[in-house]
Design brief:
The chain is α/β, with parallel strands linked by helices. The chain is built from 10 helices and 8 strands. It has helices at 6-18, 28-34, 49-52, 61-64, 83-92, 127-135, 156-163, 193-202, 207-216, 219-241; strands at 23-25, 40-42, 70-74, 97-101, 119-122, 139-142, 168-171, 183-186. A 6-stranded parallel sheet has the order 5-4-3-6-7-8, sandwiched between helices. A two-stranded parallel sheet has the order 1-2. The longest helix is centred in the C-terminal third of the chain and has 23 residues, at 219-241. The radius of gyration is 20 Å and the shape is globular. 30% of the residues are buried.
């Protein structure tokens, strides 16, 4: 949908690179596209620990009516979502309820899921209800199609899934690698059945480990990384102005 803007993006990337501006990007793939000549850092998405601490809140009424185990996907239900693969997966695993939570516009993106009894689509909700929905599910999904966009984005939803203590079953995308042994990969959404079984065996993360993860992946930690980059960028340009050899 954004293809008309691609030339403008490329021009902006070139200007950023030529200006030797410090660059913080959410994935290595974006850094590779910009090819910055100045300092750079990969700073992925994070979470607000205050949203995720405390006892498990009650499940929203609509979610409580859906039988478990629940495998949940959160986010805009658009062309990124591999709905065809989800239909295959849901038919292979009728014992699992698949919850798609998020705004869907005209609904066309998920129209093929109608009539699949264990796929449940719900419109977007506020933050408190989103947190409650995740903390009352058993498994989370990153069921994206493989595109240049999904291969470069840092999916905020994965950090929220992990903040809730959920194991994640994901399509193997570069920015999601390296997030720990609670993220399980499949070649495609349709092939996630084995990962679902493994995730259900893993269960929800213990509270002590979950709280440590929240601290390590907080927005405060991300801000510190950006401030460090700003300091490096300032020193970089100071040396340049003094004519030092870089």
């Amino acid at each position: 949908a954004r293809k008309p803007y691609w030339p403008a993006y490329r021009a902006a990337y070139q200007q950023i690179s030529e200006a030797e501006t410090g660059v913080a990007a959410v994935s290595q793939q974006i850094i590779d596209r910009i090819r910055p000549r100045g300092p750079w850092a990969v700073v992925p998405n994070g979470v607000d620990p205050g949203e995720w601490t405390g006892p498990v809140p009650p499940a929203p009424e609509w979610l409580a009516r859906i039988p478990g185990p629940r495998a949940i996907y959160v986010g805009t239900l658009d062309s990124r979502l591999d709905v065809d693969g989800l239909v295959v997966l849901a038919r292979a695993r009728p014992d699992v309820s698949f919850v798609l939570l998020g705004p869907s516009g005209d609904g066309s993106a998920v129209s093929v899921t109608r009539g699949i009894p264990n796929i449940h689509v719900h419109d977007g909700v506020g933050r408190a209800e989103l947190v409650a929905s995740l903390r009352n599910s058993q498994v989370s999904l990153l069921a994206h199609r493989r595109t240049p966009l999904t291969e470069a984005m840092s999916p905020l939803k994965v950090y929220e899934y992990l903040a809730a203590g959920l194991p994640v079953v994901s399509v193997d995308l570069p920015p999601v690698r390296g997030l720990g042994d609670r993220v399980l990969f499949a070649d495609s959404t349709a092939e996630m059945a084995d990962g679902l079984d493994h995730a259900l065996r893993l269960g929800v993360l213990g509270e002590d480990r979950r709280l440590r993860w929240l601290d390590e992946n907080s927005w405060s930690a991300r801000h510190r990384a950006i401030l460090q980059l700003a300091g490096r960028s300032r020193m970089f340009h100071r040396r340049d102005e003094q004519g030092s050899d870089r």
